[in-house]
Amino acid sequence: MMQRLREHIEEITPISDEEFEYIKTFFILKKVRKNQFLLHESDEVKYEFLALDGIYKVFYIDENGKEHILQFAKKNWWMTDYIGFFKQKNATMFVECLKDGEVVCLTLEGREKLASEFHKMEHFFRVKLTNGYIALQQRITILLSSTPQQRYEAFSKLYPDLILHIPKKYVAEYLGISRETLSRLYTNSNR
């Protein structure tokens, strides 16, 4: 499984066998089962997680008990409560496994050490963070300026594999629409 980590890093920057042998010592491999939580609200945020396989959701629950999904994650996607992780505060988010998988876990201290010791890893983390920021900005723009139909179409186009593997109620939460509206949109798009 650690070979997948190497392949993920090498999508951005090449590394030698010796470099990877050292780099992988900073990561912890963890098997995750469906419905298992990697992070609960109020937990200390010790890790950033890279999905090697499986499907995950990052969400919070508001003061009225309503769940809000910020992110789904699948193979090669990073996830955590980033405010808690980078500011070393307790979590306000949950990270839950929706489909059995494996993740590798990296501490902030490990991330910082790798970035300071290897320019290649600093570059890798910067590219991943930048891409995550771009995706978040695009998600916010879509939520603020599009109709439910446009949100559904954008999600279906961007993540055709996810829409098949995630319960419809979660897709509706992510899109900010009711389950009924999603069913109607789903039915209309499959005609």
From TrEMBL:
<dbReference type="InterPro" id="IPR014710">
    <property type="entry name" value="RmlC-like_jellyroll"/>
</dbReference>
<feature type="domain" description="Cyclic nucleotide-binding">
    <location>
        <begin position="30"/>
        <end position="114"/>
    </location>
</feature>
<protein>
    <submittedName>
        <fullName>Crp/Fnr family transcriptional regulator</fullName>
    </submittedName>
</protein>
<dbReference type="InterPro" id="IPR018490">
    <property type="entry name" value="cNMP-bd_dom_sf"/>
</dbReference>
<dbReference type="InterPro" id="IPR000595">
    <property type="entry name" value="cNMP-bd_dom"/>
</dbReference>
<dbReference type="Pfam" id="PF00027">
    <property type="entry name" value="cNMP_binding"/>
</dbReference>
